[in-house]
Amino acid sequence: MTLGTIHAWLSGGDHRKAMTELVRAGGREIVFLSDAELDAHIGEIEVLLFGIAPRLDWARAERLRFIQVFGSGTDSLWPVTGLPERVQIANARGVHLPEMADYALAAILRFEQDATTLRGKTVAILGLGTVGRAVAESCTSLGMRVVSARASEPYDLHGLMGEADYVVVLLPLTPRTSDMIDARAIATLKPGALLIAMSRGGIVDEAALAAALRSGRLRGAVLDVLAKEPLDPASELRTVPNLVLTPHIAGVVPNYIDRLVALALDNIARLERGAAPKTLVDRERGY
């Protein structure tokens, strides 16, 4: 199978020039579409790249074979009613792995400025994917004890959180994980524990977390992802003590577009060889 021109729909930011040069260097062509153009030509497109999923009548995508999502999260795509089963979907997991792993470690160290040690402390990593494994490796090298949960396997959430001095949330956002870290789950944390959320907003109950921080029960929290982004300037989260907020930057790197295009081209080449994309998304699981 040979796939034709790559089409892209950009909902924010403008990386067209860089993407065009990178795709051409890979021996292919890319066409950027407006909302109206995407809607008008969806029936002719074979390969489509985007970040936040467009709202389309996917049943009209008669020639579509491959979707490459710019980020790791694909929650904006679901439900993808009408999309033909033949269409394979890939995300960009692993593209920002080193930086996200470094962010998690920096977040932990941010709260260890009072001459305490990480050695012997327990970190619970919720979501043991590519980034989660890298975080686990870094924490282990510092003498920390790691307990973890894979999103695709059964696990005792409250049991894991109850053991932890630090919790790193790297789960995908799905119907099962939405609001999973609620008031009850937060109450299982040890007094003085630290929570770090850096995958998708909507997994942590922000009001319950804020209450635990205001009461002094938790030592701190770091949120790189929020249920609503960007954060409202008047949000009460801005006044919560010991809460560090960053604007979804854990995976932002200067050469992100280079890595993304390289991954997309590799995935397309794999499909043409009859192989599965490197970062194939399981539609049933939603990630």
In DSSP terms (H or I, runs of 4 or more residues), the helix count works out at: 8
Oligomer state of the chains in this structure: single chain
Mean pLDDT metric: 94
The biggest sheet amounts to:
6 strands, parallel
Label the overall shape: elongated
Strand order of the largest sheet: 7-6-8-9-10-11
Termini, distance in Å?
Answer: 25 Å
Order of helices and strands: EHEHEEEHEHEHEHEHEEH
The secondary structure category is alpha/beta
Q: Please estimate the helix content.
A: 25-40%
Q: Unreliable runs, pLDDT <50, ≥5 residues? A: none
User: How many strands appear in the DSSP assignment?
Assistant: 11
Strand content: 5-15%
Taking all Cα atoms into account, the compactness measure Rg is: 20 Å
Describe the structure.
With 287 residues, this protein is an alpha/beta fold. Helix content is 28%, strand content 15%. It has eight helices and eleven strands. The protein has helices at 16-25, 35-41, 97-110, 130-141, 157-163, 183-187, 206-214, 256-272, and strands at residues 6-9, 30-32, 47-50, 66-69, 88-90, 122-126, 145-149, 166-169, 194-197, 220-223, 243-245. The strands form two sheets. It has a six-stranded parallel beta sheet with strand order 7-6-8-9-10-11, sandwiched between helices. Helix 1 (16-25) crosses helix 8 and helix 3 packs across helix 4 (130-141). The chain is elongated, with a radius of gyration of 20 Å. It starts with 5 loop residues before the first strand and ends in a 15-residue tail after the last helix.
